[in-house]
Specification:
Layout: H1 5-9, E1 11-15, E2 21-26, H2 27-35, E3 39-51, E4 54-62, H3 77-83, E5 98-102, E6 117-121, H4 122-128, H5 133-136, H6 150-160, H7 168-171
Parallel strand pairs: 1-4
Antiparallel strand pairs: 1-2, 3-4, 5-6
Bound molecules: zinc ion.
């Protein structure tokens, strides 16, 4: 979806009763939820009035907590390669010959976690072998981390594009 100012400005961040971000919706849907008494407005766009006394909401919060199943992104080859932009994290190679490297090798207790797996080309993987990067004297171009959820990605994109600076305090420190 292209990010244009009009679409960006009219979006509303929906928070659970616990203040945890749930999703991004349209201002129309946000208003319906408010009118039905399901949500309250936390932040408003002071430049946009709906009626004489009502400002357009930009952040709303549900009045009742909803339980949301945790949707963890699985640590698998496809997701790891995508996180690392299909690039060897040791030499920068991008091509067909990519593999998953366990930073602390599996044989030495290394786990399948976002922090312990990285994308490595076959050459680097072979060269590193059963060693840690330090032991092999091979530096990672970046520290592996858990990727952002798609909701956080979208919210951060909007904040960075200059829309919805007021979303920031609700989105910071949350994945
Ligand atoms: Zn490499």
């Amino acid at each position: 979806m292209p990010l244009n100012r009009r679409a960006g400005m009219s979006q509303v961040l929906v928070l659970n009763a616990s203040y945890e971000p749930l999703n991004i919706t349209t201002w129309r849907r946000a208003l319906v939820m408010m009118m039905k008494g399901k949500a309250e407005s936390l932040e408003q766009d002071s430049s946009r009035k709906i009626r004489h006394d009502t400002l357009l909401p930009t952040v709303i919060r549900l009045n009742h907590f909803v339980r949301v199943p945790l949707r963890e992104l699985p640590v698998n080859r496809k997701n790891v390669l995508h996180r690392d932009s299909n690039c060897c994290q040791y030499c920068g190679y991008s091509g067909e010959k990519l593999s998953i490297d366990h930073i602390i090798p599996k044989s030495r207790g290394g786990k399948d976690t976002w922090e312990n797996v990285t994308t490595a080309c076959l050459n680097c993987n072979l060269k590193k072998g059963n060693r840690t990067p330090k032991e092999a004297d091979m530096a990672l171009t970046q520290t592996p981390h858990k990727p952002m959820s798609s909701l956080r990605f979208e919210a951060t994109k909007q904040i960075n594009a200059g829309f919805h600076k007021e979303w920031k305090k609700y989105v910071i420190g949350w994945n």
